[in-house]
Amino acid sequence: MSLKLAKRVLDVGCIASLFQMLVVSAVLAEPDLSGVWLPDIEDQIRQEVDNMPPWKPQVLRQVQYLIAEEKAGRPFLVLSHCLPQGMTSWMLITHNAFEWLTTPGRITMIGEVDGNRMRRIYTDGRSHPDDPDVTLHGHSIGHWEGETLVVDTVAIAQQAYVAISEAVGIPNNGDMHTVEYIHLTEPNVMNDEMEITAPKVLTTIWKTKRIFRRYPGRHYEITEGECEQEDLVPGKDEYGNDIFVPNAQGPYGTVHTTK
Length: 259
Prior knowledge:
Strand order of the largest sheet: 1-2-3-4-5-6-9-10-11
Shape: globular
Number of strands: 13
Structural class: alpha+beta
Order of helices and strands: HEHHHEEEEEEEEEEEE
Number of domains: 2
Largest sheet: 9 strands, mixed, barrel
Strand content: 25-35%
Helix content: 10-25%
């Protein structure tokens, strides 16, 4: 074989190898979930009726009472006292946008409304700590199975709610564990399929799904907010400085529904 022919064969081989690497890279590429996502509120409301959690009998009575109170205009505040929404409420009943940020080794979800809405999912291959700190959001680790992000969350505080709405939820009371399968069904539609184990309040694993939508053409941005803002109104201090002062409270707080 001449030197020129050998070089040509080598060049063809290099090009083929490069093409193969590009194809494999494209196949293995993780879906782009970055951006601002808005929850599908209509689907959330539908699932309040169509896919109730498998409550234990004694817990179901509490849930029925909360539903009746909400209908009577006395809603219970699942999200209150400026606490983090926590898992599983973060994904189940959020009515606000959140931003998905992917950086090496972790995913950070930043929620709109108040500074307590931040969730981290570690994707650097670590395991759960042997003795994790218990928090309302818990400890989340994730890995990719094809185009699906599988997220495992443990160490969720017992005070975190299993909720079907902002007025109906029960503290998990300990030992809650969630597994999420997050994937795109369309380029800008994301499904979070959840398996929620809460043995203190549920009879079996609750499988449910939440839908989120991304609108890249509208350039949505999350904005700041304060969870106490509704209890405050603009006012003045004794020196004439602009401050916030307490808002007048109704018998069930400022979010009380007037009938």
